[in-house]
Give the backbone structure.
Amino acid sequence: MTSPLDTGTGGPAAGPLLGGHQLPARFSAGTRPLAPAPRSPRRRVGLVLGLVGALGLIAAAGVTQWTANLGYDEAALGVDDALRTVTAQTSQARHATEALTRKTDAGHVILDTGVVPVPVPEEAVAALSTAVADGEGVGAAAEEIIAAERPAPRDKPAWFWELFGATAELTADEESLTQLAGRLESASEDAAVAAHAVEESSLAVVTAAGAAAGAFEAAHVSARNESLIALREAASRASAASTVDETTATMYAALQAAGAQVVATENEEMAEKAGPLQNARLEIEAFARSLAPGVLLDFDWATLVNGAGYNGSMGGYTTWWWDSPGRATIQLSNSVAEQWPAGRSRALVAHEVGHAISVKCQGMYDSSTQDSIEKWATAWAISMGYTDDANGVWAYGYPPQNYIDAAAGCR
């Protein structure tokens, strides 16, 4: 039998432990440890990585937002630049198109002139017709381009996912505006070329008519002076035309209207000269014009002029104007034509032309008295070699030699 103090090891028994007790090596499961256990290093790293990742996402979002804003702003600037270019090109295209329209309108007036007595080459008229038609087509096309729709202004979105899409739209707007600017520039160039073609062909017609007026006048010498003067003035303006506009077209129309008046007054004069003495009258008028080149002469015929015309007598009376161009109206009795081409008839006509040509020789004689005026006309007829007394000697006496000498210098 062992003792209570036997350890059961079979060895000698230990001495008794007096006055105390022995603590267990480990407390029970329900007892709190005396000090906290340290955290795991793995858990700390995960936390740090989580924080870093969150910060990275925030930074990435910020960079993306900044990049999206920058890209949008750059695209918006590109649109603004393209729009300014389009605005400038639109103004230029509109100006060019308006100029073309003015020229085609003027060309129409020229082409639509009804009566065209003053001749113009057919090929010139055909060229103008083609140029006007082409110009109207170019103008219509330019108007469509000018009226083309522009991209509408866009509001800037707030977030990057919206900004990227809006930036793409702005890029498309810029490309559209750039293309429109190119079309507008081409429209301006086309309008300028078409306007030049209309102007050149219009000027060809207008100046051709102006150049033809001289031959036209020569073919209608029996027309009245006022219509011939109007023709000359209109032809002068037409010949000097250097651009084509409404004024130029009006000048051309005025030239053709003057030409029509030349024809009308000549027809009236020819009707007045009709009858058995017509040929003699026309020969006398041609003779008188040959004596005073450059002086416009009208002729009126009557049975009695200046108190003469009956019983073989002949009468004449001349009115002249000092203004430019030199012009005069010579009245002759029918008896002058009845006695034509006798020397006395020629001498009387020469005397009257001596009055008419005074417009070219102003200041060469004393024109203050009727006697001096008649002496001058007589002297002029003598200086031209017409010595029959019908030259004025019979009616006014022989002129002084100094008058004859002076008259010889008046041609």
Q: What stands out?
A: Confidence is low (pLDDT under 50) at residues 1-21, 23-31. Strands lie at 296-302, 316-321, 327-333. DSSP finds eleven helices and three strands in the chain. The two ends are 190 Å apart (CA to CA).
